[in-house]
Design a protein that fits this description.
CATH architecture of the largest domain: 3-Layer(aba) Sandwich
Low-confidence stretches: none
Number of strands: 9
CATH topology of the largest domain: Glutaredoxin
Bound molecules: nickel (II) ion
Helix content: 25-40%
Radius of gyration: 24 Å
Shape: elongated
CATH superfamily of the largest domain: Glutaredoxin
Order of helices and strands: HEEEHEHEHEEEEH
Oligomer: single chain
Number of helices: 5
Distance between the termini: 80 Å
Largest sheet: 5 strands, mixed
Number of domains: 2
Strand content: 15-25%
Amino acid sequence: MTRVKKKKTQAKTKILALLVAFLAGSLTLVATLVMVMPHRVTQPSSVGGPFALTDQNGNTVTDATFKGEPFLVFFGFTNCPDVCPTTLYEMSEVLNRLGSDANKTAALFVTVDPERDTPEKLKQYISSFHPRIFGLTGTEEQIDAIKKEYRVFAKKVPTKDGDYTMDHTAVVYLMDKNGRFVAPFNLSRSADEAAADLRKRL
Ligand code: NI
């Protein structure tokens, strides 16, 4: 290696070291900011909000419809092969445990596939589940708005047969009587336990 080349290499190493130091510094700064900043994103009050959708009977349903009742919200689509039907089944079990008190609450199944999930299709689909489960759809704008409020991720995924499926957030949201987010509703415990938890909010 010639002297000149060596110098150049040394200079390059120096620049690289500086760059690494700068990046590390920036990362530390970002990490610190994230930790120091109030956790707005995860603050309960920031999940949920007003909405206007159409239920399985073609009626307009808004956040005001459920004022005074705690309710569950779940996003999915009727063509979902496993997660959605399982969740709706588990929700039905919880609502069954509440007996007549189930009338004081509701579970909203909001489609992330309004293109295919018409009120008619939702009506047929949810007829296999508890009657306090509402199937909600809307225009693309209405669905986008509620997805944004609930921080729901949903994405079309093409299937081999030229059709598509949807990847989507599978959180069940527990909302209080004022429509404010309480916590994710845990359905992996027994239906009795989950029902007792929901009953406390009535
Ligand atoms: Ni699903």
